Amino acid sequence: METIRTKLRPLVSVVAPCYNEEESLREFHGRVAAACSGLTGSYEIVLVDDGSKDATWQVIEALADDDPHVVGVRLLRNHGHQLAATAGLHVANGERVMLIDADLQDPPELLGAMMACMDEGADVVYGQRVSREGETWFKLATAGLFYRMLTKLTSVPIPRDTGDFRLMSRRVVDLFLLMPERQRFIRGMVSWIGGNQVALPYERHARFAGSSKYPLSKMIRFAVDAITSFSTVPLRIAVWVGLVTAGLSMLLLLYALYQWSQNVVVAGWASIITAIAFLGGLQMLMLGVFGEYLGRLVQETKGRPLFMVKSIRAGKHLHEVPSN
Ligand code: UDP
Ligand code: MG
After folding, report:
1. pTM for the whole thing?
2. Partner of 54 for a Cys bridge, out of 22, 26, 78, 199, CB 3.0 to 4.6 A?
3. What was the ipTM of the complex prediction?
4. Ligand 1 pocket: which residues have CB below 6 Å?
């Protein structure tokens, strides 16, 4: 990427992954540009088109035509939120980098407060939601459950009610980019880096336009990715479940021996069937857990590129990334 982009080092880069955000982008750009130019003239806005099906890329090109601060990155296909954000972080050259959603759920105006926090010595300033407008009770309930589970399962402190909305120092971004994993859970990975990480409370708004690109299936995938990449506790649970069921079956054996001593030999069909079904189910469940980890291991060992860039647009210049 460095070979394509000149070695500019703006004070701040704003990185936003965009998937089918044609309706929000102009408003988003306007508010980000206002927030940045209120602080400094030295900024860039990196908009990553994550293989959108609508006119998102055309809007990004039009924005880049009018505003030299805009850098458009077009991915070859849809890679998902976390990888699109990673692509943006690769391209961003800023001394500090703010990661933000393009749907205006996170207010770009917080940049000033985040920059001030970083001036005080923070390495990472992350937004922490004190309220979330326009979310269904289902999303709130599942998100709450997810964070409770995750903190129980992992030793990395992953603060509750945070998203990927954050300002990071160049050092943190560079360290983040050294992490090669495909199953990316950005907020956890940044947490793992450590240093001085400061929360900044804010109100999360409803989307400016369109609907969430996270249907239930993607949410589940995201949650499983997060848990498997930050905890091996589920693997250890198998050991405990195994011990407990072994203990229970010992009791069952004693009971069977007692029955036998009383000459009761035929009774017990129901309990046998139940035990077999229960153990069968349990074994499949545990195999499934192993499979989740194994599958991820396979994905990681392939070492494929995290994302593929089709072209990069900076100002009037379009750099097609060669296809071979
Ligand atoms: N997004 C993306 N690729 C995807 C899905 C989403 O780049 O495959 C972007 C989307 O455009 C938005 C951000 O990721 O800027 C967060 O997505 P969304 O608002 O749908 O998630 P939610 O806020 O509902 O969790
Ligand atoms: Mg959103």
Report:
1. 0.85
2. 22
3. 0.97
4. 17-19, 21, 50, 78, 80-81, 84, 101-103, 105, 212-214
